[in-house]
Design brief:
Largest sheet: 7 strands, mixed
Strand content: 15-25%
Shape: globular
Structural class: alpha/beta
Oligomer: single chain
Order of helices and strands: HEHHEEHEEHHEHHHEHEHEHEHEH
Strand order of the largest sheet: 2-1-11-10-9-8-7
Length: 365
């Protein structure tokens, strides 16, 4: 049985609130250890089990609760980490709008098909609240809260970015051409997806009971006493700064105003060119930096950390395996502070001692 009590959540919630307010004199360090191979963040059995529980529509919800409970038995949470449930996976908003999908249990993900709808069709798409997946997501969000009674923090689904969903439905190559040839139609389609995202976001947040949860959370596993969300636009890696500001920044500004606390997911070297623009938005609290597979290590991006913290923003990065723990030291040295930093660490059970050393070093335990 997952044993994560209120006292432990109270400590984590309090530290997170200090962190959100830039008052915590240490970094947040979340350590989640599984039976996966060291450094293999996506391969752990518990993530696959939860994904199956979400998307296997033939599995009764009561059985899904048992599967989720069983999955968490193989996971340990240390430091500022805590168990989280949300409707996976990235881009599920497309499925809520009618996009077909296929569960891949072996790869631990869901693949969304590309129906290649025309922009004028996308501009009038609406949430399919009657769809089996939308109903399933709502039911799971309710029932996980009921079943676990505050032992798991429940967040909204991982909807995906506005332009990421748009490019998934339309086709990325076609959309790139249309950015140059049919601005009006692209904007109509993008703003409609924004409106559908906003409706879905609000509907799922209304289902989350603040009295029964330790706080608000999401796939980024931060905890907040105000609703928060992590916005993204991975599609932006394929466009320049002017197009980003022209097509997406107005949406980003509006997104970040209607959500009380907002982070931005900056994914990979090709997205870095947009950082200066993102940092000008006051309502964005922080930036989550992901250097990307095959890119230079986390210590090779000093300008990114300096820009983020220099702009008065919070910063979050992922640490995959004990072999990357030294990046915590590197980033603290680069920024010159332990404040405002959050490290989401994942690893294997046999790495526990190395992770505990860092938790002690930075006074987390």
């Amino acid at each position: 049985m997952l044993n994560f009590n209120k006292q432990r959540y109270d400590k984590i919630a309090g530290d997170f609130e200090l962190w959100w307010e830039h008052k915590l004199d240490r970094p947040l360090i979340q350590v989640t250890l599984t039976r996966a191979a060291a450094g293999d963040y996506g391969s752990s059995d518990y993530r696959r089990e939860i994904l199956n529980a979400c998307y296997n529509l033939e599995m009764p919800v009561c059985e899904a609760m048992e599967r989720i409970e069983e999955a968490y038995k193989n996971v340990e949470f240390f430091g500022d980490a805590f168990p989280v449930f949300y409707m996976r996976t990235t881009g599920v908003l497309g499925a809520f709008l009618g996009q077909d999908y296929k569960l891949s249990s072996e790869e631990g993900t869901v693949w969304f098909s590309n129906p290649e709808k025309e922009l004028d069709e996308i501009a009038v798409m609406k949430l399919k609240r009657e769809s089996h997946l939308y109903v399933r997501a709502m039911e799971l969000t309710r029932q996980v809260q009921e079943h676990f009674q505050g032992r798991i923090a429940v967040g909204v689904p991982d909807f995906g970015g506005i332009y990421d969903v748009l490019s998934s439905i339309r086709d990325a190559n076609e959309l790139l051409i249309e950015l140059c040839t049919d601005r009006e139609s692209v904007m109509k389609a993008a703003w409609n997806i924004y409106e559908q995202f906003k409706e879905a976001y609000q509907e799922f947040f209304r289902v989350i009971d603040p009295a029964g949860n330790p706080g608000y959370t999401s796939w980024a596993t931060m905890l907040s006493q105000k609703p928060y969300y992590v916005l993204q636009n991975d599609f932006s890696a394929m466009i320049g700064p002017q197009m980003f500001d022209d097509y997406y920044k107005p949406i980003l500004e509006k997104e970040s105003r209607f959500i009380p606390r907002v982070f931005y997911h900056l994914d990979g070297p090709d997205a870095v060119k947009h950082l200066d623009s993102i940092l000008t938005i006051d309502s964005i609290e922080g930036v989550q930096w992901v250097n990307g597979a095959g890119a230079p290590g986390l210590d090779q991006w000093p300008d990114i950390y300096k820009k983020i913290t220099g702009a008065g923003k919070l910063c979050q990065v992922f640490i995959n395996g004990a072999g990357e723990l030294h990046y915590i030291d590197d980033i603290v040295e680069i920024t010159g502070t332990e404040r405002g930093l959050c490290f989401i660490c994942s690893g294997a059970g046999e790495e526990k001692e190395q992770f505990e050393e860092y938790l002690k070093k930075y006074h987390v335990i």
